[in-house]
Amino acid sequence: MDTYDIILYVGYALVGLGAVFAVVLPLIKSLDDPKSLLKTGLGVLVIFVLFFISYSISSNEVLPKFEGEPFNLTPQMSQIVGGFLVTTYILTIIAVVGIVITELNKAIK
Question: Can you tell me where the transmembrane regions are (predicted)?
Answer without folding.
Answer: 6-28, 40-57, 77-101
